[in-house]
Amino acid sequence: MSNDIVFLAEFNAGKPARSALELATGAAELASQSGGSAVALAYGSGAADGAAALGAHGAARAIVLGDEDRPAITYAAAAVAAARDGGLALLAPATPNGRDLAAVLVGKLELPAFGPVRAARVADGVLETEQATLQGSVITTSRPAEGAPAPSVVLVLANTFTPAEGGSGSAQVSQAPAAEESAFSKVIVAESHPADAKVVNLEEATIIVAGGRGVGGEDGFGPLRELASVLGGAVGASRAAADAGWIPYQLQIGQTGKVVKPALYIGAGISGAIQHRVGMQSAEQVVAINKDPDAPIGEFADLFVVGDLFQIIPALTAEIRRRKGSVG
């Protein structure tokens, strides 16, 4: 068994998904601990031309499973064939496509699986992962059982690793050997629908303005959207707000939603229960606005403003606009 750290890298129109960049950096970090190399399994449109660029983010090698614009699951047989070469771990993003491919790898190769994890490391040549359980109230550390087959498949939450920037390396690219025909290769997209224009990729947002039960309803997100707009950020929500139908589930942050890591997180009307905290606690700066001075979010916020969000948010938005105008 090699000490390589393998990871799935999805491409679209020649560009790697953010998850691919995160896992390239994470795989390189783990490989430095294991004494192996970071190896990408690249797939998707333009993967053949774009795979070498993963070297700038830590990948030493890239194996191209295919570079056509087709459903990710159709690359399952090629991924299985490539993963047979082993390695210490195979990292998969905890995205719909990543979960699909990880499930096939686990089932076909009878590999141990972990995740979704929030941290991973190699200690004394053994992979260790950290996972939140019991709605985020307990963090468990796991490792493969002695004698377990390799590699271990690890589902990795978004923002677990921060993509390395400014690298100039180039990954050595090779083509995966031809895979045997499988039912997965026959999957087609029967129907598709464009995403709501209001739904953004929260995992890539640097500024997030999130609302919870305290916004009172769908209309209550109006002031939050205005603030997010002047800040150049995105709008998110707690599970309570999403469950109430006030905002799309794609914007839910927390244990059962998105895990985000913005430079600035503004939580308005959010109590800050542990389930929500799991999804945003990695934010660099947290500003909380809540009428309840005892709200749990105040315990970890960098700035806790006690007051009515419907007075504070519009005033803050107006002040930012004024300052922008004076600068211009």
Describe this structure in words.
By secondary structure, the chain is α/β, with parallel strands linked by helices. The chain folds into 2 domains: 5-186, HUPs (Rossmann fold), CATH 3.40.50; 202-327, TPP-binding domain (Rossmann fold, 3-Layer(aba) Sandwich), CATH 3.40.50.1220. The protein is built from 8 helices and 16 strands. The strands form 3 sheets. Strands 1, 2, 3, 4, 5, 6, 10 and 11 form an 8-stranded mixed sheet that branches. Strands 13-12-14-15-16 form a 5-stranded parallel sheet. A 3-stranded antiparallel sheet has the order 7-8-9.
Question: Key terms for this structure?
Answer:
26% strand, eight-stranded mixed β-sheet, Rossmann fold, 328 residues, alpha/beta, elongated, single chain, five-stranded parallel β-sheet
Tell me the number of structural domains.
2
Radius of gyration: 21 Å
Judging from the principal axes of the Cα atoms, what is the shape?
A: elongated
Instruction: Give the helix proportion (percent range).
Output: 25-40%
The first-level CATH class of the largest domain is given as Alpha Beta
Which series of helices and strands comes N to C? EEHEHEHEHEEEEEEEHEHEHEEH
Task: Give the low-pLDDT segments.
Answer: none
Total strand segments = 16
Q: Alpha-carbon distance between the termini?
A: 60 Å
Mean pLDDT: 90
Per CATH, what is the topology of the largest domain? Rossmann fold
Residue fraction in strands: 25-35%
Question: In CATH terms, what is the architecture of the largest domain?
Answer: 3-Layer(aba) Sandwich
How would you characterize the largest beta sheet? 8 strands, mixed
